[in-house]
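Team,

Forwarding the record for the chain on the shared tracking sheet. I've put the sequence and predicted structure together so nobody has to dig through attachments.
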Amino acid sequence: MPSRHSLMHIYSALSLLLIGALLMGCSSEGNTQEQQKAPSADFDPDIDIALTAAPGDIQLRPGQKTEVYNYEANLLKGPQSALTSLDSYLGPIISVEQGQKVRVRFTNQLPRQSIIHWHGLHIPPEMDGHPAYAIEKGQTYTYEFTVTDRPGTYWFHPHPDKIT
């Protein structure tokens, strides 16, 4: 088992919760590419995760529940330690090691376009969640990259145009 210092943790941002709660009724604007990035046949990931952004309801305070947007994840391939799902409104923690190949199959079930920005990771531009790659509800965008960064704490968050 790798030491704690050899792992990187990628945390979902609390901003997803806050953005969802604050923007539930706002409309999205901007140009969305109609293409969906499909998994590459020649990319053999060490870790493969299905990550879905979807609306939900949570109990933040006594009384009425708060509508939020949240990430839910399932580990499709890789060690169990690669994915920790928190039993709260916070999204999952993805733990990877330098040199690992990572595939994340992001499905957008939000009522507006979305895309994920991997904050702090050094990855190819088309994998880094630029708003130009935002996808509509029901679409999937597949991220594939090799972790080159040193161990640390990184985070991910939605990055659609004009509503981040």
